[in-house]
Amino acid sequence: MKKKALVTGITGQDGSYLVELLLSKGYDVYGIKRRSSSFNTQRVDHINQDEHVKGQKLNMIFGDLSDSSNINHIIRTIRPDEIYNLAAQSHVRVSFDIPEYTADVTGLGALRIFEAIREADLNHTRVYQASSSEMYGDAVEVPQSENTPLNPMSPYASSKVFAYHMARNYRIAYNMFISNGILFNHESPRRGETFVTHKITRGVAQIKLGLMDKIYLGNLDAKRDWGYAPEFVEAMWLMLQQESPDDFVIATGETHTVKEFVERAFDIVKIDWKKHIEIDKRYFRPSEVNILQGDYSKAKKILGWEPKVTFDELVRIMVKADLEYFEKQIKK
After folding, report:
1. Which of 248, 254, 259, 234 is nearest to 301 (CA)?
2. Does 8 share its domain with 147?
3. Is 193 a residue of the active site?
């Protein structure tokens, strides 16, 4: 019998890569997406062009993590073997503008899933909770591991800390299989356009093709541990294949500044970045996280997981994809 997987945040970067992985492994996949007046399924449209056709492997369901009754109904109806909770208001800077909404979806949304499973008495269901390196905030040590104290510096990070602790609480109190994946920054051509890495690579491609002249950024000195999203979703799946639930840091172990990302991206198209980057205070956070660097040794030992795509390869993949995209737009 095929395993059934339920994925929240299916229309996002991670959700789309995870769906591809699960389908390749023979799962029946159900994805929750929010009802919207505009289409937002472009990352998964290639998987299932007509979501209403019966018999498709990818089943799209309207739902919202802010709606307890809806989440309860979905989980009781599907009775999934695995749940991957990837949904969130995930933009850190935006979380300062809409902190209540961020807390409701990112924090309480996870709790609603855990409660729905408990109330339905689905003892067989395994849950992956998407935690974040942002939980470390102004980190007390570098690199950060599963034992590093959490010190969130944004509404987004605080919401993730709440969900992280609730996952651990339900795991202990109710013997539920819930694993936290503390993922450090992971990027790809499917990254949201407002996130700094994709903002940079899209800008570089447009500058190269003469479509724009300036990219406006915030703190160029912030240091991050950047990996490749398709590799990170494999780690999510591996966590739910273990004998017991646990928490894992998923990272590359390397750190690079935003400035380095800019330099690498412009180097690919052989353009002087200094002529095209402008600093805009609007993109600075009220409280900055200066350095995030993960220690993935536990994941390597227990899951057998380690990153393969290097920082330079990641930047090249993203710039190349954006160049191809805008070249096609010009030809239309």
Report:
1. 248
2. yes
3. no
Contact yes or no for 276/214 (Cβ under 8 A): yes
Of the candidates 30, 84, 156, 164, the residue annotated as catalytic is 156
Q: Range of 273's domain? A: 196-223+255-290+309-331
**Predicted TM-score of the model (pTM):** 0.92
Q: Can you give the CATH number for the domain in which 271 is found?
A: 3.90.25.10
Specify whether 214 is located in the same domain as 103. Answer: no
Each residue's pLDDT tens digit, 225-281: 999 999 999 999 999 999 999 999 999 999 999 999 999 999 999 999 999 999 998
Among the listed residues 121, 116, 146, 153, the one whose alpha carbon sits nearest the alpha carbon of residue 131: 146
3-class DSSP state for residue 235? helix
Q: Which residue among 134, 159, 231, 296 is the active-site one?
A: 134
Amino acid at 41: T
Q: Catalytic annotation on 156?
A: yes
Please say if 134 is a catalytic residue.
yes
Domain membership flag for residue 154: yes
64 neighbors 34 (Cβ within 8 angstroms): yes
Q: Is the dihedral of CA 313, 317, 319, 323 positive or negative?
A: positive
**Residue 2: both structure tokens together:** 């095929």
Q: Point out the catalytic residue in the list 132, 133, 154, 188.
A: 132
Q: What is the pLDDT of residues 133-143, one digit of tens each?
A: 999 998 999 99
Alpha-carbon distance values, 228 to 186, 196, 240, 291 (Å): 5, 15, 20, 19
10 burial via Cβ count (<10 Å: 0-12, 13-18, 19+): buried
Gap between the Cα atoms of 217 and 200, Å rounded: 9
